[in-house]
Design brief:
Largest sheet of chain A: 8 strands, mixed
Order of helices and strands of chain A: EHHHEEEHEEEEHH
Distance between the termini of chain A: 22 Å
Structural class of chain B: mainly alpha
CATH superfamily of the largest domain in chain A: Nucleoside Triphosphate Pyrophosphohydrolase
Organism (chain A): Allomyces macrogynus (strain ATCC 38327)
Mean pLDDT of chain B: 75
Family (chain A): Belongs to the mitochondrion-specific ribosomal protein mL46 family.
Oligomer: heterodimer
Shape of chain A: elongated
Protein name (chain A): Large ribosomal subunit protein mL46
Helix content of chain B: 40-55%
CATH class of the largest domain in chain A: Alpha Beta
Structural class of chain A: alpha+beta
Keywords (chain A): Mitochondrion, Ribonucleoprotein, Ribosomal protein, Transit peptide
Pfam family, one (chain A): NUDIX
Shape of chain B: elongated
Number of strands of chain A: 8
CATH architecture of the largest domain in chain A: Alpha-Beta Complex
CATH topology of the largest domain in chain A: Nucleoside Triphosphate Pyrophosphohydrolase
Number of strands of chain B: 0
């Protein structure tokens, strides 16, 4: 930790797109739920439709068209488009940006008198465009970066993206939305070890 | 006789045997045919009461045996106990992993706040403030569903 007198304040923001679909059941979970479904079925009274409905009152059930839901794996999954927010719907996707040839979380400086969480939000919008519906998770930082230089303190904030997309500007050459397991391919070892327990 | 009445002795017996299918000794056809002492068979068959054809359906619905449905066999108590224990072990492992993840996140959070308090007391006070219109959950933060929206992610200007 840098001393109070000399330290400069910087922010880093961990922007996450939360899962949009429920996690896939493991084989054991699926088997367990099926076992209990069968157990319930064997102890329940079967429904006798004629008891509840007069003959002919149900109508033409064959004419009802059930809605077809969307697929859980999308085109972005098959193409493995790391810029897409429709990829890996059951996992968290984190924003990493390429600044000066190096991949990292979105970083920025803190202005005079500016609260940390506002600086974090502002730096994301400046560097990744205004087309981001961000929600900052509270006001407190979630971590202090262990890879910061001696004369600076980098506070990490967490934000959710609710809509929109990143459009790199101002020194940012590239971006990607990656899962926790893919993060190691983008960040260098020191940066990854610093961030992995926050994901 | 009330249809909801269950003798206490019968209830206790059922509670002690959770793995056996609940059965009754009465079948639809035998209900109402138990000869009471000295009573003659009532006028009219058990197929109708006052011409109501739902009576046999009612008897079937309430009293028919449900010992085996579609060939589902009754499960052995040991097998059931093993399955439940395996599930508990799996859940315990998941809970332990979740706890470890949360503990690590809390340690980093605490480190950050302790440092901030020493480095910048004003910003620390702002960070600790629990009030403010920015501190509500957004409407668009929805719970995950089994299948995604057909419209996909809202890229807005995209």
């Amino acid at each position: 930790m840098a001393t109070a007198a000399a330290a400069a304040l910087r922010t880093a923001t961990l922007v996450v797109r939360r899962p949009l679909i429920t996690p896939t059941r493991t084989a054991f979970e699926q088997a367990y739920y099926e076992y209990h479904a069968n157990l319930r079925a064997s102890h329940e009274r079967t429904v006798i439709p004629d008891f509840w409905t007069k003959k002919g009152a149900a109508g033409n059930t064959a004419a009802i068209q059930m809605a077809v839901p969307a697929e859980r794996t999308t085109e972005a999954d098959t193409a493995n488009d790391v810029k897409s927010l429709d990829r890996k719907l059951e996992e968290n996707l984190f924003l990493v940006v390429k600044e000066g040839g190096k991949w990292s979380l979105v970083q920025g400086a803190v202005a005079e008198g500016e609260p940390l969480h506002e600086a974090a939000r502002r730096s994301v919008l400046e560097k990744c465009g205004q087309n981001l519906d961000l929600w900052m998770v509270g006001r407190s930082p979630i971590a202090l970066s262990h890879t910061a230089k001696d004369n600076e303190n980098i506070f990490v904030h967490k934000a959710h993206i609710l809509a929109g997309q990143a459009a790199p500007t101002k020194g940012v050459s590239d971006f990607a939305w990656v899962t926790k397991s893919e993060m190691a391919k983008f960040l260098d070892k020191a940066a990854y070890d610093d961030v992995v327990e926050l994901l | 006789m009330s249809l909801l009445a269950v003798r206490p002795a019968a209830l206790a017996r059922l509670a002690r045997t959770p793995f056996a299918a609940v059965t009754t000794n009465r079948s639809a056809s035998s209900f109402g045919n138990k000869p009471a002492a000295g009573a003659a068979k009532k006028k009219g068959s058990s197929n109708a009461i006052g011409g109501d054809s739902r009576y046999p359906l009612l008897k079937e619905y309430l009293y028919a045996s449900h010992a085996e449905v579609d060939g589902v066999a009754e499960v052995d108590a040991d097998v059931h106990a093993t399955i439940e224990r395996a599930w508990s072990v799996a859940q315990r492992d998941l809970a332990a992993q979740r706890h470890a993840d949360l503990a690590a996140k809390y340690r980093r959070l605490r480190e950050a706040m302790v440092t901030l308090e020493q480095v910048d007391p004003d910003r620390f006070a702002t960070a600790m403030d629990r009030e403010g219109e920015d501190q509500y959950f957004p409407r668009l933060l929805k719970a995950p569903t089994e299948t995604p929206a057909k419209t996909g992610w809202d890229y807005r200007r995209g």
